[in-house]
Every structure is written in structure tokens, then in C-alpha cells.
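Q: My labmate handed me this sequence with no annotations at all. I'd like to see what the chain might look like in three dimensions before we decide whether it's worth expressing. Could you predict it?
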Amino acid sequence: MIHILFELIRAVLGLVQVVLIVYVVISWLYAFDVVSRRNQVVASIWEFTSRLSNPILRPLRRVIPPIAGVDLSVLVLLLILYLVQTEVTWWLERLLLGQGGFF
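A: Here is what I predict for the chain of 103 residues:
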């Protein structure tokens, strides 16, 4: 049962990573005028991803200022999510399930 919980957590973290990557790609497309903001499909995807990602990114943006206009908080959050998704859940699963050694 705990294994299913950890797999669910990994799946949710993977979905959050996909949303963040889509958010970044669309922001780049807007910044370089590749896509018009009047495009309804892109605008609705942008609205969805920004509503999901902005509450998560807001605390990081307070700590990490933009450097030359580039928001690095998304990169930091992606790295944190990757570490949590792979390493921390692996260690917790081993600890809680009692499988294998730590070294």
C-alpha cells in the first residue's frame, strides 16, 4: 500500500514538472513573439499553466531575483522536484518498507 502511495506521489510530481516545462516554453514563445497572445488555444494553455505554477513559484521568486530578465525560480523548482521525485522518495521507501541497505 505504501508503494502505491509513493508511485502516486512520483506521478503527481511528474505532472507538475510537465506543467512547469509547458509554462516556460509558452513564456519563451511569447517573449520572442513566436506565438501571438491573441491565439486562444495558446492563451488558454498559458492561463492554465500560470494559475498552477504561480502559487508554487511565488515563494521562490521572493528569494531568487531575475537575472538579466530571466526567471531562474522555475529552474530551481524543477531541480527540487527532480530531487524529491527520485532521491527522497527512494530513501523514504527503503526506510519505511525496510528493503535493502542504505549503502
